[in-house]
């Protein structure tokens, strides 16, 4: 458990943020000089999520994309542990600590078991990269944005490898419009990626013959590959709330129900931000950043004794998305059009917004952290 000294800005100003993903980290950074902020997260770092697949094919990329909490969050306390319970006044951690709060922000997003330390996370990327480099064929399970981007990264960086992508839906990128999925499919096929739709892969019964693995799909097909990557949807990170005082605030999908101020409905001092909310919008990183900005402003207004009419609101974001296709290209869905190629690639694919995100966190866009 790593801790940092909390600032002493008076009583009634204790803000506890649970979850150190995009939303939670940005909020902790934004609110650290407004209140006594404690960040509870099972890992000691924040990772720029839209850079993870580039880090898989280029591990050195992770040096800028995996950032220790203490590097951007200098005026608060970090507790490196899982939150396991919440009462009206405290958050309990796996390590047995009870952390008192006046305001609570839940930002536990989706459940994604990752290494606990920055050093281990970067080592993990080197290990994943070695897995790709030593394979002649790679199977990717899942045709959402993660699977499509990983297939694109491997196809561009390792064109000699046979890449197969299996997706259980009728089209790729099912979370956005069909044009984006069609453009991604066409691009992947042009890079000799074999795409199999409306099939599932049985990962519980894989035949391994001296490293050469045989996978069977739900349609009875067999696929031979040296390794596989699972790129399917992760569960919402709310299971820890199901026996707490917030259990009645979860919807049927396990998401916290919030109002326009991002307060948990029926709770005046509890907020929720990021992927764990029930807001009807795509779960995108830039929207999570917007959530953090809204709650940071609302906490400031509240702590300064401002009137409720001064609180900021969040309106559901438009269905916009950008999916990288290798180093130079991307497919982008905007409200007015869906485009692909070098133009959206210029916006995202070269740096994966890492420099921009580091700058937003108050860090040098180019300096590698240690």
TrEMBL record:
GO cellular-component term (any): cytoplasm
Sorted UniProt keywords: FAD, Flavoprotein, Oxidoreductase
Gene3D superfamilies per UniProt: 3.50.50.100
A Pfam family assignment: Pyr_redox_2
Domain FAD/NAD(P)-binding, chain residue ranges per copy: 14-282
InterPro entries: FAD/NAD-bd_sf, FAD/NAD-binding_dom
GO molecular function per UniProt: electron-transferring-flavoprotein dehydrogenase activity; flavin adenine dinucleotide binding
Task performed by this protein: Putative FAD-dependent oxidoreductase.
Sequence similarity: Belongs to the FAD-dependent oxidoreductase family.
Protein name per UniProt: FAD/NAD(P)-binding domain-containing protein
Species in which this protein is naturally found: Linum tenue
Lineage of producing organism: Eukaryota, Viridiplantae, Streptophyta, Embryophyta, Tracheophyta
């Amino acid at each position: 458990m790593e801790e940092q000294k909390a600032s002493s800005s008076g009583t009634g100003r204790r803000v506890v943020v649970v979850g150190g993903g995009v939303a939670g980290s940005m909020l902790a950074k934004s609110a650290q000089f407004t209140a006594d902020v404690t960040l509870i997260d099972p890992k000691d770092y924040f990772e720029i999520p839209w850079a993870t697949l580039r880090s898989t094919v280029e591990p050195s990329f992770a040096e800028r994309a995996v950032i220790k909490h203490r590097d951007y969050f200098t005026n608060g306390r970090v507790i490196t542990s899982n939150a396991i319970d919440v009462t009206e006044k405290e958050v309990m951690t796996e390590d047995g600590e009870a952390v008192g709060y006046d305001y609570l922000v839940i930002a536990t997003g989706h459940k994604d078991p990752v290494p606990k330390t920055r050093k281990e996370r970067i080592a993990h990327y080197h290990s994943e990269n070695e897995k790709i480099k030593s394979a002649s064929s790679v199977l990717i399970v899942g045709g959402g944005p993660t699977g499509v981007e990983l297939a694109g990264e491997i196809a561009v960086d390792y064109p000699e490898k046979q890449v197969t992508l299996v997706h259980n839906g009728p089209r790729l990128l099912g979370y956005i419009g069909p044009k984006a999925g069609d453009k991604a499919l066409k691009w992947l096929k042009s890079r000799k990626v074999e795409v199999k739709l409306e099939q599932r892969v049985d990962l519980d019964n894989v035949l391994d013959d001296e490293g050469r693995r045989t996978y069977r799909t739900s349609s009875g097909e067999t696929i031979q590959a040296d390794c596989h990557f699972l790129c399917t949807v992760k569960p919402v990170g709310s299971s820890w709330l199901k026996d707490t005082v917030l259990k009645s605030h979860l919807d049927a999908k396990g998401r916290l129900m919030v109002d326009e101020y991002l307060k948990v409905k029926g709770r005046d001092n509890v907020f929720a931000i990021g992927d764990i909310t029930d807001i009807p919008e795509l779960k995108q990183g830039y929207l999570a950043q917007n959530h953090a900005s809204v709650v940071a402003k609302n906490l400031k207004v509240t702590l300064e004794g401002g009137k409720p009419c001064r609180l900021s609101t969040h309106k559901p974001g438009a269905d916009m998305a950008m999916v990288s296709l290798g180093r130079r290209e991307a497919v982008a869905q905007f409200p007015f059009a869906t485009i692909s190629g070098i133009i959206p690639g210029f916006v995202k694919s070269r740096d994966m917004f890492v420099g921009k995100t580091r700058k937003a966190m108050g860090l040098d866009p180019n300096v590698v952290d240690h």
